[in-house]
UniProtKB/TrEMBL annotation:
Organism: Ananas comosus
Name of the protein in question: (S)-2-hydroxy-acid oxidase
InterPro entries, per the entry: Aldolase_TIM, Alpha-hydoxy_acid_DH_FMN, FMN-dep_DH, FMN_HAD, FMN_hydac_DH_AS
GO cellular component, one term: peroxisome
EC top class, as a word: oxidoreductase
Entry similarity comment: Belongs to the FMN-dependent alpha-hydroxy acid dehydrogenase family.
Subcellular location: Peroxisome
Cofactor: FMN
Primary site of residence: other
Molecular functions per Gene Ontology: (S)-2-hydroxy-acid oxidase activity; FMN binding
Pfam families in UniProt: FMN_dh
Length: 367
């Protein structure tokens, strides 16, 4: 049957993938309350569309950190994509550049920064996990820069891995025929099986729990790439990110895989945007599955969004063609949303085009 929306790829992936792999991709932490909420919070935001505006031409292009892209929809880092499809990160990189948008490569990719660069031109960011061994980090960042990556997305919500119970039950581990390619030469490319999630044990052994704001500054001394702080959920941390020299913020709860019972990212977005005061751009990921979600995020002040699970699920279903289709469907839906709410370019999208739960308790005096 024809796939008509991004969400349908999840069921197809579930049929195709080994249970251990599907569960790793799909799961959230603990009760998975935030996982559900990442979607439900979008559904509580409604539109205030404007009518009788000429929408015969719609421009979705935008600029992210100075790079022009075709739409404000980009690809979030998701680890170990070759578990989904043999082409893994190669397919994702090709689909992203065909759509003229940005791909973020995970530190824990099953293809290296050099391999992904070899797929051809494209604007790519590198997601960084900071290892205890800072020489490993410095080497990796240098390699990403040399391979033409344009920015670092520094993940700051993972001093330890969140408790994903399916991974614990399945004793999740990277299949032995695959490697965390960026770490192959550093003897950190394999994951041992453990009595827990193998990934949780790997993180406990290798990732630096002492990471702090001073390290955001340190990172700027070892690279000239701009740094996006990925995993901000509060105004307090948005202000600290600005002070620490970050080039941007990604409002993210790691796809609800870290701390459960944090708010949906779309609920946290507005306070972060206000605190950033327009000094640096704010992006969002988490639960974006519809063009209407993209519009809502932009109306609340995001400069763009990133998608995670739809990429791995569509990759599992149809490889590169699946990821292309996901990007195309979101693009088409977003364009339609703009048309039906009377916006012809991204700057036309305003706070007044939506109404949130919190607005309902306030008077409508702002109108
Ligand atoms: C992730 N995410 C993630 N984030 C990160 O910084 N480094 C990583 O290696 C990974 N790996 C990863 C694997 C899988 C399977 C998932 C689902 C997620 C988090 C990711 O970048 C992003 O924050 C969320 O996926 C966004 O939410 P949605 O779109 O999946 O709902």
């Amino acid at each position: 049957m024809e796939v008509t929306n991004v969400m349908e790829y999840e069921a197809i992936a579930k049929q195709k993938l080994p249970k251990m792999v599907f569960d790793y991709y799909a799961s959230g932490a603990e009760d998975q309350w935030t996982l559900k909420e990442n979607r439900e919070a979008f559904s509580r935001i409604l539109f205030r569309p404007r009518i009788l505006i000429d929408v015969s031409k719609i421009d979705m292009t935008t600029t992210v950190l100075g790079f022009k892209i075709s739409m404000p929809i980009m690809i979030a880092p998701t680890a170990m994509q070759k578990m989904a499809h043999p082409d893994g990160e190669y397919a994702t990189a090709r689909a992203a550049s065909a759509a003229n948008t940005i791909m973020t490569l995970s530190s824990w990719a099953t293809s290296s920064v050099e391999e992904v660069a070899s797929t051809g031109p494209g604007i790519r960011f590198f997601q960084l996990y900071v290892y205890k061994d800072r020489n490993v980090v410095a080497q990796l960042v240098r390699r990403a820069e040399r391979a033409g990556f344009k920015a670092i997305a520094l993940t700051v919500d993972t001093p330890r891995l969140g408790r994903r119970e399916a991974d614990i039950k399945n004793r999740f581990v990277l299949p032995p025929f695959l490697t965390l390619k960026n770490f192959e030469g550093l003897d950190l490319g394999k994951m041992d099986k453990s009595n827990d999630s193998g990934l949780a044990s790997y993180v406990a052994g290798q990732i630096d729990r002492s990471l702090s704001w001073k390290d955001v500054k340190w990172l700027q001394t070892i690279t000239s790439m701009p740094i996006l702080v990925k995993g901000v959920l509060t105004a307090e941390d948005a202000r600290l990110a600005v002070q620490s020299g970050a080039a941007g913020i990604i409002v993210s709860n790691h796809g609800a895989r870290q701390l459960d019972y944090v708010p949906a990212t779309i609920s946290a977005l507005e306070e972060v945007v206000k605190a950033a005061q327009g000094r640096i751009p704010v992006f969002l990921d988490g639960g974006v599955r519809r063009g209407t979600d993209v519009f809502k995020a932009l109306a609340l002040g995001a400069s763009g969004v990133f998608i995670g699970r739809p990429v791995v699920f569509s990759l599992a279903a149809e490889g590169e063609a699946g990821v292309r289709k996901v990007l195309q469907m979101l693009r088409d839906e977003f364009e339609l949303t703009m048309a039906l709410s009377g916006c012809t370019s991204l700057k036309d999208i305003t706070r007044n085009h939506i109404i949130t739960e919190s607005d309902k308790y306030r008077t409508v005096s702002r109108l």
